Amino acid sequence: MRLSAKIPQSVLSRHMRGVLGYNNPMNITLIQSPYDSGYYGLRMGRGPLHLVERGASDWLRQQGHEVDLVPIRLRDGFNTEVGSALAIQRQVAVLAASARGEGRLPLLLAGNCNASLGLLAGVGPSATGLVWLDAHGDFNTPETTISGYFDGMALAMIAGLCWRELAASVPGFCPLEAQDIVLVGARDLDPGEGALLDQHRIARFGAQELRQEGAQSVLSRVFAPLRSRLSRLVVHVDLDVLDRETARVNQYSSAGGLTVKETLDILDWLTGRFEIAGLALSAYDPDADEGDRVLSAAQRILTSFSGNLNG
Question: What are the structural domains, with CATH classification, of the chain?
Answer without folding.
Answer: 9-309 (3.40.800.10)
